[in-house]
Amino acid sequence: MAILPSAAVFYLPWEVNSVREGESLRTFGRLICYQPEESRATLSTQHASKEHHVLIHTLFVEPFNPIIGAQYLVLGEAENFDGVGMMVCARVLNCVDGVNIALLQKAIGEQRSFFRERECNHGNVTQPAGAT
Predict the structure, then answer these.
(1) Domain 9-98 has CATH 2.40.50.140
(2) How many Å apart are CA 14 and CA 128, to the nearest integer?
(3) Of 4, 20, 83, 91, which has the maximum CB count within 10 A?
(4) What would the pLDDT profile of 35-74 be if each residue is shown by its tens digit?
(5) How far apart are the C-alpha atoms of 15 and 27, rounded to whole Å?
(6) Contact (CB, 8 A) for 34 and 21
(7) Quick one: 12 exposed, middle or buried, by C-beta within 10 A (0-12, 13-18, 19+)?
């Protein structure tokens, strides 16, 4: 019986560098650069007066029609590439231009809060008498 990998966790772009290699993740950003000869794209996001870049390895989603300046959502695995550092090896790279990024960030925060609360409550739940 095959065990499915865990669902990819949403990481805000400024958190991607803290992801362990091989871990699945989801993140987002504005496409600022695409280098097809290297199968590499760069997403950018502004946070706390600092610009954060996320490097994306695009080999598995090519050919794709990049729209420079558009918002993208990426699903993939964190990989450490020599000379480059941490990159997201994209399995899905979708243009989501028009998405309200502030609302997306709020939704990610709410989801994290829900999962934390569920973890805390799951440890405290006792089974009713007679349950098997």
Answers:
(1) yes
(2) 44
(3) 91
(4) 999 999 999 998 888 999 999 999 999 988 899 999 999 9
(5) 9
(6) no
(7) middle
- Is the peptide bond between 5 and the residue preceding it cis, with omega within 30 degrees of 0? no
Output the pTM of the full model. 0.79
Question: With contact defined as beta carbons under 8 Å apart, do 59 and 91 qualify?
Answer: no
Q: How many CA atoms lie within 13 A of 57 on its CB side?
A: 16
- Pair of tokens at residue 111: 């989801």
Q: Alpha-carbon dihedral of residues 45, 46, 47, 48, nearest 10 degrees?
A: 160
Q: What average pLDDT does the structure give for the chain?
A: 86
User: What gap in Å lies between CA 47 and CA 12, rounded to an integer?
Assistant: 10
Q: Which amino acid is at 72?
A: Y
Domain boundaries, the chain: 9-98
51/48 Cα distance (integer angstroms): 8
Percent pLDDT > 90 in the chain is 47
pLDDT in tens, 78-88: 998 888 788 99
